[in-house]
Structures are given as structure tokens and as C-alpha cells.
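ugh ok fine here u go
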Amino acid sequence: MTVWQPRMRCVCIKTPPTHGDGFAVPQMGVVYTVRSVVAVSENRSGMVLLRFFELDNTRWIGERFFDLERSVDFVLTAEPAFRCGYFRPLSETRIDVFRRLLAPTDRVSA
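structure:
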């Protein structure tokens, strides 16, 4: 089970590594909105990956890349996603309390 959900806002706390030039990569300190959550059960690691509305890497699907770390040539079959460990969820409910106190309200007769 994960705390991550679509439409959740989060902040990038560390810029993730990339395997090619031209990829839209999250930048540290920037706020993003989660588009989709991908749970990967590779080797029972339970890794959770995120995609964002603000970053679109769909144009790279079907392109050929070379992974320098593994010395492997591969074709990208899905849009890249980023490990959730590079992000922290924003708790927007904290500020909503103050917004409700400042917002004008209509008087309702009892």
C-alpha cells in the first residue's frame, strides 16, 4: 500500500538521474502534481514510481537508448517514471485551515 495518489501534489527533494538528453526531469524544490502511480514488484522490492502532469516524456516511447551503467542497448516501451523517494507529499490541509478562517462567509439564519 502506498500513500501516493493521482492529483496529489508533491515537492522534489532531489533531482533524479537521467539516462538521456532531452528527458523532462523533475528539478529540486519544484512542486509537481502526480499523474499516475506505478507499483513495481521487481525482485519483491515494492518500488513505487511516479509520473507527473507537468512532465511529458511520451515522445520517447519507442526510441532506442544506451544505458552506460549496464552497457545495454534498449528500446523504451513505456513513459519514464521517477522513484517516489525523490519526492515528499505536500500537506495542503494545513494551509486550508487558515484559508477558511480568512474567507468571507454568508450568514445563515438559525
